[in-house]
Task: structure prediction
Amino acid sequence: MLRLENVNVYYGESHILRNVSFHIEAGQVACVMGRNGVGKSTTLKAIMGLLPVRSGQVFFDGVDITKDATDRRAKRGLAYVPQGREIIPHLSVRENLKLGYWARGKGSNGMTEQSAFDEVYTLFPKLTQILERPGGVLSGGEQQQLAIGRAILSSPKVLLLDEPTEGIQPSIVDQIEDVIIGFKSARRFAIVLVEQGLHFAARLADSYVVMAKGAVVAAGRAGELTHEQVRQHLVV
Result:
């Protein structure tokens, strides 16, 4: 489904990602873990085409997308929820959600517009109460629900989530966890989840990719890596 082969990314002359290689299977949840600054977010940006890959390749659905623009990757079925959520502040919740629906590729799952929106409203009922509110005035938890809902509306094959629980109140964290568990059970699309919390990740992960100093230092299915192997590369 998604495969990185010896991906190298630089910021200027600083070598950030060093020969990063891993693969994600269709319908799986893969947790990318490691201390702050090891390249987790950079990896997601490289997958999405927001940062150029200097060497190496990114494959999606068997196609080399290394040189594809971000919008082309979105049409192929990649969706991205960054740490900052990137809600369009002057647009309403409804308008932000429509941006996700309009990003759907031709090969999307065939849901009608109404059924696609109804699914998001079922997952995040709070959004139905704030549809006309500008995105810029929402709380962090509301923005995160909106950002995930917008990504889902694009009908992704792979959903990239960058620390979706960071700075979010516990009740919303629980709701986001339930939503991800639901997606995992349905196996409708794969999820690449950057997450610092081992306990949160352990409840969701089918596989782990553990990073340190811009490189993958351990990777494997959840049953193949012990929590201690993962924990030694996290912030204590």
